[in-house]
Write a structure and sequence with these properties.
Pfam families: VanZ. Keywords: Membrane, Transmembrane, Transmembrane helix. This protein is mainly α. It has a domain of 89 residues. The protein has 5 helices and no strands. The termini are far apart.
């Protein structure tokens, strides 16, 4: 099954969400987490890892070149996300207020695989992510060319 997504954005714009997510995750993992913010249920942490790294993997999948075979895009998206998850855990391991956790890395990997799998094979999910509130072809000031 092929995944067709509209790609008319420049290279940098396609990777902007990935860059923003990586920067946000890195900033958040560098600080300490006050105990009153994290609920007593430990699994909420793993769920957060699954969701955030799933979003990251989906963003990477969408940013990769359109000409790449979907199964290769999926492998690259999952692989790059897991590599970043490993670097994030190593980063946390160097922080005296945080700990490195292999279960977090496993949650990152599960999130990356599930999200890219769902994005690739479930059209409804893909259409929701690709939906634009303002269609590109709609006439108006946002889509008309500038006149000199």
């Amino acid at each position: 099954m092929s995944v067709k997504t509209p790609r008319q954005q420049p290279f940098f714009l396609r990777w902007l969400l990935v860059i923003a997510l990586v920067a946000s995750i890195s900033l958040l993992s560098g600080g300490s987490v006050p105990p009153e913010i994290v609920p007593g249920i430990i699994q909420i942490d793993k769920l957060a890892h699954i969701l955030v790294f799933g979003l990251l993997a989906t963003a990477v999948f969408r940013a990769l070149p359109d000409g790449m075979a979907p199964h290769r895009k999926m492998a690259w998206a999952v692989g790059l996300t897991i590599a970043f998850g490993l670097s994030d855990e190593l980063h946390q391991g160097m922080n005296p207020n945080r700990t490195m956790d292999g279960w977090d890395l496993l949650a990152d990997a599960v999130g990356a695989f599930v999200a890219t799998f769902v994005y690739r094979y479930w059209g409804l999910y893909r259409r929701v992510l690709e939906w634009r509130p303002i269609p590109r072809s709609a006439p108006g000031p946002l889509t008309e060319p500038l006149r000199s």
